[in-house]
C-alpha cells in the first residue's frame, strides 16, 4: 500500500548534502509557493556548495523577508561565496551595522576575492550615509583603496570618499593628501561642484 509522504510545515527543512538533492528540494518548495523553505535549503547548501549562490540570491529577490533566516544560516560560514552573498544581501535589504560587519569580515578573510574591493566601498557608504559612523566609513574606504586591482593605482572613488570623511572628522591634513592624489589621478574632477567645495574647505582651490 503506497504511503503518503509526511506533510512538511512551510519553511521547515532538513540538512541537504548532494547538489541534486538540494536543488530538487529547493525547486519543489518554490513550486509549492514556499520561498522561505527554498531559501533555507539554499542557504544550507551554500555552506558547502558555491553553486547554490545564484538560486539563493534569486529567491531572496522574490522574498526579501527570508533574509534573516538565511543570514543566520550563513553567519558561521567562512566560505568565500557564503560570506559574499551574506554581505551583498544585507547591503541590499538592510544597510545596517550587521551589513558593514559582514562585509568587513568577508574582505578581511578573502582580500583577493574580486568582489572584496567593491563591497568594502559599499560598506563604507552604508557606514557613512546610513549609520553616520565616519570612523567605520574611513576604515572601509581605506580597505577599498588597499584592495584596488593595481597596488600602484589606488581606487579613485574610495580616495575621494575617504577625503570627504576625513574632512568631516576634522583630519584635514590627511584629507588634503587624499584629495591631492585623487585630483592627480582624476584632474577633470576639479570641475565638479562637490569636489570644488571640498577643495575650498581644505584650502586646495588655488592649486587647480
Question: Can you describe what's shown?
Answer:
The chain is mainly alpha-helical and 208 residues long. The protein is built from 11 helices and no strands. Helix 4 packs antiparallel against helix 5 and helix 6 runs antiparallel to helix 7. The longest helix is centred in the middle third of the chain and has 15 residues.
Topology, element by element:
Blueprint: H1 19-31, H2 35-46, H3 53-62, H4 67-74, H5 80-93, H6 97-109, H7 116-130, H8 134-146, H9 156-169, H10 172-185, H11 193-201
Helix pairs in contact: 1-2, 2-3, 2-4, 4-5, 5-6, 5-7, 6-7, 7-8, 8-9, 9-10
Structural class: mainly alpha
Strand content: under 5%
Poorly predicted runs: 1-17
Strand count, sense and barrel status of the largest sheet are:
none
Judging from the principal axes of the Cα atoms, what is the shape? elongated
Residue share in helices? Answer: 55-70%
Rg estimate, integer Å: 22 Å
String of helices and strands: HHHHHHHHHHH
Count of DSSP E strands?
0
How many helices? The count is 11
Distance between the termini: 87 Å
Overall pLDDT: 89
